[in-house]
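Methods — Computational structure assignment.
A single polypeptide chain was analysed. Its primary sequence is given first, followed by the predicted tertiary structure written as structure tokens.
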Amino acid sequence: MSAGSVAVVVTEEIGVPSWDLYELSIPCTVFGKPQPDLSEHWYDLRLCGVGTGARDSAAHPFGVSVRTPYGLDDLVGADTVIVPSVPDACVEEGAPLPEGLVDALRRAHAAGARMVSLCNGAFALAEAGLLDGRRATAHWQHTGQLAARYPKVEFDDSVLYVDEGDVLTSAGLTAGLDLCLHLVRRDLGAHVANQLARRMVVPAHRPGGQAQFIDLSVPEADDASLSPVLEWARRHLDEPLTVDDLARRAAMSPRTFYRRLQAATGTTPLQWLLNQRLARAQSLLEATDLPVEKVGELSGLGTANNLRHHFLKHVGVSPSDYRRAFSRSGPTGDPLTA
């Protein structure tokens, strides 16, 4: 017996780009190697190619070829179907997905398969309509494209993965490993998932979500007339700043400044200021050993408690957890950062 069959879609069989191999290897590592001392029932893994035949791989000089006896028809009947990624052209240029993939995904879901995407594999599940009316995620760099292309889906770029029961999606790269371990936890229990994570030398559960990885300092304004005042504001984040202050410095009325900044950046002046202050705090936590009280002061976020509040709300982790994860010099050991 097995813990269930897992069909992994290989959307590029010839010249698989090296940067897509990571997502492809994650389900192979988690589900493909039996762990008899952890569970007598493990998974039956199958790689299923799209069957597009040989292609010129010169466009991907660092790519590899994947040969598998299984095709898209083998998705139907699998207990779990995983789409690790889709070709870059489908994401960046809106090129169609490999022929037959969308239909195969729909048939597999109709037959009762649990559907899973890693990173930009969400484009395939969304195109098949399997995410309509659901909450989903993908790499934070792609969620904007996905939301524009598939308005019936609620995309959340702050989390590592989303479990909607029979449809699950993950953020980019290592978040796919978080999701696959979550599936093991669902299927075989927490003990098995935790022991497997230890063997892979990864945390069984990571604190926070992918919000901690997003560059909060973007977007930049594309209105050149705003650049001087925004650059001035960045140099004075440790001071009290209001929309009236910025508008006056830009020689605009507050209403005009609000409208111009929102048009240029897609965010309000107060949200822009908060994002800049959070980005400054992140930089200070990464590069210095300053206590959180000083980080809050220099970033304009105020007290240590206020800094913690905004980090937990917008970054998804505490300042101390963020520093431990991203400090350029390793853990500081400073008790004031706890």
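Note: Confidence is low (pLDDT under 50) at residues 53-58, 330-338.
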